[in-house]
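Hi, here's the filled form for the chain we discussed.

Project: internal
Contact: R.S.
Residues: 283
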Amino acid sequence: MQPNSGTNLSLNIYNRSKKAAKFTVWANKAITNNNMIIDYSARKITKSPNLPSTLNIYKMISPKVQNIQVPANGTKKIAFKLKMPDQQFNGRLLGGIYVRKQIEKSVKSGFTNRFNFATAIVIRQNNRQVKPELNLNKVRINNLNWTRTVETSTQNVSKTYLSHVKTAAKIYPVKNPKKIVIRQKLDNRSIAPNSSFNYQLPLKNQKLKPGKYILDLKFISKNPDQIWHWKRSFVITSKNVQDVTIQHNNHLWIWILLIALALVIVLALYLWWRKWRRYENKH
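And the returned structure, exactly as it came back:
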C-alpha cells in the first residue's frame, strides 16, 4: 500500500450454535509476549521501539472496537477501514483482528466458556527486505510464581518479523565458566516487528549462591537466517534469595490457612449431619 492510500478490511463471523452469540472484535498492532510468541490480543497501544507512532496499525484502523451479535446458525460481516499515513517505509508492519466471544456463564457447572480467534494483517509498501535487528538491553533477577527468574529486556527494532526462532541459554559463574548451572532451549518461537519482550529463564530448583554470573544467550532465526549471540553479566544478591524465601513462606501460610479453614467447615458439616441423624432416628 502507498502513503495516503486506504482500503477496507472485512471479516465474516460464523455462529454455528443454536442461539445468538455476542462477540467483541478489535484490531491492534502485533506484539511479542514473554513466551516469545506473536500475540494479537492486546487492547491498548503498545510502545514500539524504533517505530513512529503513525506507523502503528492500531492508529491506522477504524473503528478500534466493535461489539456485534450473530444470530443462531448465522453469519455476520464486519468491516474496518485502513488508512495509510503520509509516510514511506521499507519492511513490514504486522497487526491483527482479534475476535472474542463474550462470556457465557454456565449455571450448572459454574465454568466460563470463552472463544478467541485472530487473523493477521501484514502491510508493506514494497518488496525490499529489511535486515532484522535484535537488541538485548538489560539482564535482571525477577521473582515469578515463587521462582527466581533471570529476565532480559529484549527488542526487535526492525520492521520485519522472525519465525522458527530457536533459543539456547546457559548460566555459569564468572569465576568458573565450565560450571554450567542451568540451561534452557526453546524451539519454534516468533518475534513481531518493532516489539519489546522479556526473555525469561526460570532458575527452578537451582539454589544459586549470591555472586556474579554470566548469561550466555543465542537466538537462531530460520526465517530470515540469522544468529544473535550475547553474553551479559548479572549479580545474584542475598536480597534476591531472601525475597523468594519470603514470598514462598507467605504463600505457604495462605495455603495452610485455607486447608485449616476447609477442615473446620468439613468438621462442622459432619457434626451437623450427626446431630440431624440422631434427631431423625428419635422421630
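Let me know if anything looks off before we file it.
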